[in-house]
Design brief:
This protein is an alpha/beta fold. The protein is 52% helix and 11% strand. It has nine helices and five strands; from the N terminus they run βαβαβαβαβααααα. α6 packs across α8 (172-185), α6 crosses α9 and α7 (161-168) packs across α8 (172-185). The chain starts with a strand and ends with a helix.
C-alpha cells in the first residue's frame, strides 16, 4: 500500500501510524510500473481542488483503490470525492491504526469504505437526489424511466413493438423512440444490446 497527502506533515503522521503494522507493507508511491491492485491512502484536511487533483492523478496512473482520510467533509465534498473515484472515506478523528488497516483491507478486497457518520449523510444525499432531481423527471437511479424499464422488460419477453404499444397504451412511434433513447444514451448498438445491458446492470 501507499500513503500520500496534500501536505507532507499529514503524510508523515498517517505513514507513521501504519509503518509498524505487520498487516500492511508501506511503499512509496511509484511514478511508473504501478500495481493496480495496490491501495493508496490519500490524506487531506478537506476535499479541495488539490485533494481532488491528487486523486485524479493517482487514478490516472493506474492506482484504482484510493481511500481518502479527511479532517472534515461537507455534503458537497462527499459527493465530489465519490465522483472522482475514491473507494473510501475515513474521518481523521476515527483514523486509528486499526481503523486504517481495516480500511486498507476492505479497499484491497475491492470493497467500499465509509465512516458510519458519513454513510448516513451519503444516504441522505442519495434520497434528496432521487426525490428532488430524478423523480420530477420520471427517472430512477438506474438511469431509466419507468416507461423505459417497462418497454425493455417486454422486449426481453419477446414482445413486438405493436404488442408493447397496445399493452402500455402508447403509439408504436413512442415505443420505438423510447428504445432509441435508451440505445443512444448508453451508447448501445441496438435494442437487443439494450436489453442485455439493462439486465446485466440490474436495471430491469
Amino acid at each position: 500500500m501507499h500513503v500520500t497527502a496534500t501536505d507532507p506533515i499529514l503524510e508523515t503522521g498517517v505513514a507513521s501510524q501504519l509503518r509498524g503494522r505487520p498487516e500492511v507493507a508501506l511503499l512509496p508511491v511509484p511514478r511508473e510500473d504501478v500495481d493496480p491492485a495496490a491501495v493508496c491512502v490519500v490524506v487531506s484536511d478537506v476535499v479541495d481542488d488539490a485533494a481532488l487533483r491528487l486523486v485524479r492523478e493517482l487514478r490516472g496512473r493506474g492506482l484504482r483503490q484510493v481511500v481518502l482520510v479527511l479532517s472534515a467533509v461537507d455534503d458537497g465534498a462527499l459527493l465530489a470525492a465519490i465522483e472522482v473515484g475514491v473507494c473510501g472515506l475515513v474521518l481523521r478523528a476515527e483514523a486509528s491504526p486499526e481503523r486504517l488497516v481495516e480500511a486498507v483491507r476492505q479497499a484491497a478486497a475491492m470493497g467500499g469504505v465509509l465512516s458510519p457518520r458519513l454513510l448516513g449523510r451519503l444516504l441522505g444525499q442519495v434520497n434528496r437526489l432521487q426525490n428532488q432531481v430524478l423523480a420530477p423527471k420520471g427517472l430512477r437511479f438506474t438511469g431509466l424511466s419507468d416507461r423505459e424499464a417497462a418497454v425493455l422488460r417486454m422486449v426481453a419477453q419477446g414482445m413486438e413493438v405493436r404488442e408493447i404499444a397496445r399493452e402500455l397504451c402508447y403509439s408504436e412511434r413512442t415505443i420505438k423512440n423510447t428504445v432509441h433513447d435508451v440505445v443512444t444514451r448508453f451508447q448501445l448498438r441496438n435494442r437487443t444490446h439494450a436489453v442485455a445491458f439493462a439486465m446485466r446492470e440490474g436495471m430491469i
